[in-house]
Design goal:
This protein is an alpha/beta fold. It has helices spanning 15-29, 51-57, 64-76, 145-149, 173-191, and strands spanning 2-5, 9-10, 36-38, 79-88, 91-99, 105-110, 126-129, 132-136, 157-162, 195-199, 201-202, 213-216, 222-226, 234-237. The chain has a single domain (2-237), classed as Nitrilase/N-carbamoyl-D-aminoacid amidohydrolase, CATH 3.60.110.10. A hairpin with a 5-residue loop joins strand 12 and strand 13 (222-226).
Length: 243
């Protein structure tokens, strides 16, 4: 199974430009023929939290974005995991959706470790596919012990879309290597399942999410990463035993 993580360069509040950028990035990686393509949290709108922005950009699932990603899934014959702002009767969720190669929605996760004005999810589900048993958490969920305890430890792969800036505004590679990267590895070790982490690279905004992607083994070993501060795609082939 070949996974492709795209830390998409995202311009907040401009989904039209972001989807165009995504289409170009997919054309670039198409020669690798990935089985699973993973995009960041809020990947086509940016991570938005102002009520006016949520009212403007949140949409239903299924809805326009899931239909557009479904079309791309069929075109590239790949599973897609992507984050979006989900509008429901009860309010707006920070959600991630997994579609199969036919564009069918097969799994949705509503972020649990989230702040108002979002409402929060309360379940951690998974789905069996021809790629194995897959699950999703979103960003802060990975660092929340109660949420992680709800994971099925028989998962073959956990997907974690993020939109995360550096802690304390420390936007430099030394800080990443010496401190923050280790926090991610420890969190995955606590989850105990192989994990794909893909972070947004926000542009034209203050305190932006820093991009990059990671493949981490169930015991917290860093298998591969793309550089923080970039939108470089990370492609990784998993063997039959999940390594």
């Amino acid at each position: 199974m070949r996974a492709c993580l795209i830390p998409l360069a995202t311009e907040p509040l401009n989904p039209a430009a972001n989807i165009e950028r995504l289409v170009r990035r997919l054309d670039e990686v198409a020669r690798h023929q990935p089985d699973l393509i993973c995009l960041p949290e809020g990947g086509l709108t940016g991570y938005l939290y102002e009520e006016d922005d949520l009212a403007r950009f949140a949409e239903t699932v299924p809805g326009p974005t899931s239909e557009r990603i479904g079309h791309l899934a069929r075109r590239h014959r790949a599973y897609f995991c992507f984050g979006l702002l989900e509008c429901a009767e009860s309010g707006v969720y920070n959600s991630a959706v997994l579609v199969d190669r036919t564009g069918k929605i097969i799994l949705r996760h509503r972020k649990i470790e989230e702040k108002p004005p979002f409402i929060v999810g309360d379940t951690v589900d998974n789905v069996d596919t021809d790629l194995g048993r897959l699950g999703i958490l979103i960003c802060g969920d990975l660092f929340d012990e109660e949420t992680v305890n709800e994971l099925d430890r028989s998962l073959d792969l956990l997907i974690v879309p993020m939109s995360r800036p550096f802690d304390e505004g420390m936007q430099n590679i030394d800080h990443w290597i010496s401190r923050e990267r280790q926090l991610y590895l420890e969190a995955v070790r606590g989850a105990g399942v192989p994990t794909l982490i893909v972070n947004a690279l926000e542009i034209n905004t203050d305190d932006p999410s820093f991009g990059g992607a990671m493949i981490v083994s169930a015991d917290g070993e860093l298998l591969a990463e793309s550089p923080v501060g970039t939108d470089k795609a990370l492609i990784w082939d998993f063997s039959a035993d999940g390594s």
